[in-house]
Amino acid sequence: MKKKVLSVLLCTAMVAALLVGCGNNEEATEQPAETTETEGESEAAETTGETGGGTYALITKAAGNPYNEKKAAGFEESVKELGGTAIIRHPEKATAEDQITMINELVAQGVDSIAIAGNDFDALQPALRAAMDKGIKVSSVDSNVNKDSRMIFVNQAGTDQIGETLMDAVLDLSGGEGQWAILSATSQAANQNAWIEAMKKVMEDSKYSKLELAEVAYGDDEYQKSVTQTQALIQKYPDLKVICAPTTVGIMAAAKVLQDENLTDQIKLTGLGLPSEMADYVGEDKACPYMYLWNPIDVGRLSAFTSAALVSGEITGAIGEKFTAGSMGEYEIVAAADGGTEIIVGPPFAFNAANIDEWKSVY
Q1: Residue among 11, 316, 295, 34 at smallest CA distance from 142
Q2: Disulfide check for 178: which of 73, 228, 241, 360 has CB 3.0–4.6 Å away?
Q3: pLDDT (tens digit, 9 = 90+) per residue, 68-85?
C-alpha cells in the first residue's frame, strides 16, 4: 500500500534528534569505512514471534554521503525504539568488493539481520546467500540486489513512478523538445539503473518524441567527479537544455557548476536532492526550478522495522504479508518488478521555491 513519505506531521523532536545524530556534511565526508553500534535494552533476539531485541546491521553504499548518514540515523533510531543493537557500516568506496568484506565480517559476528543498499545487483549474491544460509535475515534497502540475494526489498518509491515523475520534469523544463542528459551515480548502482531504464521506457510515449537523451554520464557519487562530468556534458552538448541527476551528490555538483558558470538561463536541472544541500539552488530563477526526493530518515526507519519483523518471524517476505512499522503505520508486502517482493515507503515529493525553506532544516 502506498504512503506519503514526507508527512508534515513528522515529529519536530524526532527530527531534531536525528539531525544531531547525522552531524554536519563536512564531518560525514571525513569518516570512511566507519562502524557504529547502538545498544538497546536486550541481547540478540531469538525468533519468538515478538518484534524487538536483536542485532540489526545496515550496510550503506559508501561513506561521505549525507543521504546515507540520514538513512543510517533513521535506522539507528528505530532499532533503539525496538530495544535492539544497531550496527552501521559505511564502505570506504561504493564498490561490491567493500560491501562483500563487510557482509562476511557481519556473518562472523553472528548478527540477526543485514540490510544493504547494494552497490551491485548481482555481485553480492554469494556473500548474501551465505549469510542467509547461516540464518541471518537479509533485506535490501534503497538500492536493490537480485531476488535470490534477499528476502525483501525496502524500496523508497515505486521504480516506474520515479521514472515517470522525472521524465515529466524533463519534459516540462525543456519545453517539450531538445537535448537532455542524465548525471547518475555509478554504472553498477541498481537503483540508478532501474530508474534510468524506467525513464527510457516512459520516453517511448509519443509525447516525449521531440526529446533526445544525449548521454548518461556517471559521477560515481563523488562530488568532484560529478562536477567534472557536468562540465564535460556542457562542453560536449552546446544545445543541452536539461540535466537530470537522480542522485543527491550529482544534483548538488551540477547545480554548483550551472550557477557558477551563469548557465541557469540556458540549462535547467532536476532530479533527486536533499533540501538541506539544494536550498541555495532551488527556484525558478536558479539552476534547479524543482526537484524530488523522499525522506531518507523514513527509509532507514522502515528498513529497521522490516529487519525486526523478519527476525521475529512476523513476516517472511511473502506477498500480502503486513506489519506495523511503529508510528509509520502498517505496510504491506507487494510484488517487485524482478520477481521478488518489496515494501514501498511512498511516492516522490516535490521541492520547489515555495517549500524548500520549510524542509531545508529537516534533512
Answers
A1: 295
A2: 241
A3: 999 999 999 999 999 999
